[in-house]
Sequence to fold (329 residues):
Amino acid sequence: MAFSHRKWSNGRERRAFNVLSPGHPFQGAVQEDRKTVKMMCDSNYKIVITGGGSGIGAALALDLDSEGHSVIICGRRVEKLKGISNKSKNIAFFKCDVSNEKNVIAFKQFVGEKHDYIDVLINCAGLFGAIGRFDQPDSKLWRKTIDINLFGTYLVTKHFLHLLLRSNVKKIINLSGGGAFGTFPNFSAYAVSKAAVVRFSENIACELADLGVQVNCVAPGFVATEIHDATLKAGLTKAGAEHFKETKTKLKAGAVPMQIPVNCVKFLISPESNGLSGKTISASFDKWGTKEFKKSINEMSNSELYTLRRINLSNLDANDDLRKKLIDL
Fold:
């Protein structure tokens, strides 16, 4: 299946892009003998990754480090950062709460002492945060979710921009997530923050285009990482029966393999993606690894494909009943 349909209690359908589409270039990633896709670069990149102590950020750090890139990670838990660094060839780390501007400035200074510039910034830091109907969680926790997922992405991007502009590569990758393009009941803070990250990314892609900066988001799909521990801890009532049960099921089997979002990010920071900016790419659904996709980058860049937009009547099929009723009013 390319996607699955489920209905909320109000009968409205939700489309979930958590499975690989037929013919996806990396559908074979579920097989143990699948070869890792190598990123084609002219030289080793200097890469900064937030949230690099666990989950997708950690997997990216180790993968990119193994290919010879200079990787610096940050996170709030030193023991996690040390663990990733110890598994690597040369990953440096720095303790940093991305929602704290003083921390971010100190992190930038740490990186600046090692490198005169950075080629790639990957914002992976994030959490589910407040779980439950929007009026039930503690307001401070709801705000904290926004602070880390959205404001943290803003702060790191803001303060690392001048180092990025010294590079000839200049690429920013932000992680999207559930709720960015559809409702995510009981995870309102997370959904709002991720939708805002997408709009922020699209906005700065426009603002930085003349400076040669490429900005994109990756929607990783349901990857089995520790972020889902929060759902299990919240329980069926707070998290919602459907998502709670789905989480338990997919953590056992059916999650998107980690290498899928890792390879998608590697594609976006490679020269193969040059010219593509202001887009959100679904790692597990969009056929970003195909020749046809790469050949269509210029055309995509001039379209609203893979962007966050309102659906107007004119966007509906000519035979759609609502369009027929309302188009001429």
